[in-house]
Design a protein that fits this description.
The protein has six helices and five strands, in the order αβαβαβαβαβα. The chain is α/β, with parallel strands linked by helices. Strands 2-1-3-4-5 form a five-stranded parallel sheet, with helices on both faces. About 15% of the residues have low confidence.
């Protein structure tokens, strides 16, 4: 500001000392807070003026599992498995006669393994060398067992001819499982049409053969 606009005390029409006696107008709003209330209002200081809500907590612990869903070891998964009925393929196989005609040493080991399985404890298993040709020669002079397990590495057309020759020496009701060399769907269909119950190709697990046998002889259907 310039010097000409300087204000002096003489420029005012009232006495500055009277400001000490200045009273606020009645229309001015009252301040908020305890001082704004009348003295006649009583407060119950035993109660809080406002309610402080506790922060919501997050329960990280999962709810406990029902006791009936656990076994005595506390493992619910084991209890669930215990309630399941065993499949047909895991039932004991009845007292049947099985004759296997194999070509490879690995097949012999597999058959010997299933012969020691507890599910075949009532069955009798004989193992012969020579494959499908040996089976035809043997059955031409011997009785037919309940199950024939024959192995053949011959091509599909030759195998079909050999199966037809084998059928000439088999009694009605005999089950035949063939172990082949290749996964041949048309060959499989031809063998099934001729009464073959199962066609297996390597690699073959002992449990696979056991369940196949069990399905043939323990399935009520």
């Amino acid at each position: 500001m310039g010097k000409d606009s300087t204000l002096f005390e003489d420029d005012f029409d009232f006495d500055l000392d009277s400001l000490d006696e200045f009273e606020p107008r009645s229309s001015a709003p009252k301040a908020k807070g305890p001082a704004a209330f009348d003295d006649e209002v009583e407060f119950d200081m035993s109660k809080p003026l406002h309610k402080v809500e506790e922060p919501l907590g997050v329960d990280l612990d999962p709810p406990p599992k029902p006791l009936e869903a656990m076994d005595e070891t506390g493992d619910a998964a084991q209890a669930m498995l215990a309630d399941e009925a065993p499949s047909v393929g895991d039932r004991p196989i009845p007292a049947i006669a099985i004759q296997a005609f194999i070509e490879k040493s690995s097949t012999r080991e597999m058959v010997e393994t299933i012969a020691r399985d507890r599910r075949l404890s009532r069955a009798s298993i004989e193992i012969h060398e020579g494959g499908l040709d040996a089976a035809i020669e043997h059955l031409a002079q011997s009785a037919t067992p309940n199950l024939l397990l024959v192995e053949s590495s011959a091509p599909g057309a030759r195998m079909v001819v050999d199966i037809d020759r084998l059928a000439e020496h088999c009694d009605a009701g005999v089950e035949v499982m063939v172990i082949g060399a290749t996964n041949d769907i048309p060959l499989y269909r031809k063998l099934v049409a001729r009464g073959v119950s199962e066609y297996l190709v390597p690699p073959i697990q002992p449990l696979q053969v056991i369940r196949s046998i069990s399905d043939l002889f323990t399935d009520p259907d």
